[in-house]
Amino acid sequence: MIRQPRFKFRLYVAGTTQNSTRASANLTAFCTAHLPHRHEIEIVDVLQQPKRAMADSVFMTPTLIKLAPTPDRRMIGTLSHTQLLLETLGLET
Amino acid sequence: MKTITRRPPNANKASTGIEGFDEITNGGLPHGRTTLLVGQPGSGKTIFGLRFLVFGAQVCREPGIFVAFEEASKRIVANAEGFGWKLPELLIKKLYIVDAQPQPDLVQTGDFDLSGLLTALEAKAKEMGARRIVFDAIDIMLALLPDATAKRREMYRLHAWLLEREMTAIITAKAGGDEASSLTEHPFTGVTLADIYTAGGDVLMGTLRWEKESAERVANEVAEVAGKLKRVTLKAEEAVLRVKAKSMDTELLAKQVEKTLRDRTTQSRKGELSRGRIRMRELRGADKRNPKQKPENL
Fold first, then answer.
1. Considering chain A, what percentage of its residues have pLDDT values greater than 70?
2. Contact (CB<8Å) A78/B113
3. What is the pLDDT of residue B195?
4. Which of B93, B146, B98, B91 is nearest to B121 (CA)?
5. In this structure, are residues B15 and B9 in contact, taking their beta carbons and an 8 Å threshold?
6. Chain A residues contacting B, CB < 8 Å?
């Protein structure tokens, strides 16, 4: 069996706003369904760490950055389109 | 020389530093309010916004933030240099450019908002005491939002944020398209320079070019005067050196005279000494035995 790559995500949210809450729920559900036991999610709240958002050029919330496997990819929004997520992450079969 | 009389600054207005514009608007843009600037590509929206910030930072003690949705900060700095504005000097404390261009491969899946941008700006504005802000090409960001409701909501959020902080703001957008029309519908507190501005774009660029040329003229005059001054200084230095050379000549002459005098004195002293020695020998000759004799009494 081919060893499958591990996915590393960083999700920037803005407190508990509707868009942000939806995005983290959607991401968790997506990872459980399509990347079981091979994903890591770091959630950064821009309200708590505004300088980190500036340093990472994150201006729209929610923003998802895929850090691994390379290359980096960015997605903005509530991550509600599963099909688009699969395509963007190259997980289409 | 002609003196320019400036009218006293109006407390309700934020001066742009563009003389013609400040005159027709009775002192500049509404202070603490948001002004929408809509125009065709190349009509000078970015330069207008930048000029407003540069003048604020240099003259009005009002630091500013430039949020660039379209052009990269490097290009903005290079363009400003074309107008003779020295941005790198200001960039340390009084002017901050945010590179907010969306990545070309950015994927949008569902709704989003500007909370991230506003929180980041809040921190930066506090840190540098920013009073002016420009959102350049907001249409680029609005185009990413999924629907008209979301666009209106985000414009409302941005405007409310600006009003609460009493920032004097300019929001620029390209004329035509859904984004511009959704913007012109929004009741901004400042003024909307849309159709009037499109016609005025050339006038503005003309004014800025004139300002740049006159600045160059002044710089040339200053350089010329400096050149003249340098020539005068050099002449003065030359004169001083000449005087020095003359006094050195005189000194040399004096030294030469002194030397000959000394030579002569030495000569005459030598003569005196040899005469003295001869005299001594003569005297010694009289009691020649004495030095060889040992005293017997001791």
1. 96
2. no
3. 43
4. B98
5. yes
6. 12, 14-15, 17, 19-20, 22-23, 26, 46-47, 50-51, 53-54, 57-63, 73-81, 84-85, 88
pLDDT digits over B118-133, tens only?
988 998 899 999 999 9
Angstroms from A32 CA to nearest CA on chain B: 19
Supply φ then ψ for residue B98, to 5 degrees: -95, 120
Question: Are B25 and B13 within 8 A, CB to CB?
Answer: yes
Q: Rounded to 5 degrees, what angle do the CA atoms B183, A76, B157 make? A: 35
pTM, whole model, 2 decimals?
A: 0.68
Residue with tokens 């079981």: A36
ipTM: 0.84
| Closest residue to A60, CB basis, from B116, B122, B123 | B116
Low-confidence ranges of chain B (pLDDT < 50): 1-5, 195-203
Least Cα separation, residue A38 to chain B (angstroms) = 23
pLDDT of residue A25: 92
Quick: pLDDT tens for B142-193.
Answer: 888 888 888 888 888 888 898 898 889 988 888 776 666 666 666 665 556 6
For residue B135, give the nearest of B158, B157, B112 by alpha carbon. B158
DSSP A16-57: T-HHHHHHHHHHHHHHHHHSTTSEEEEEEETTT-HHHHHHTT
> What single string gives the DSSP state of each residue in B164-189?
HTT-EEEEEEESSHHHHHHHHHS--S
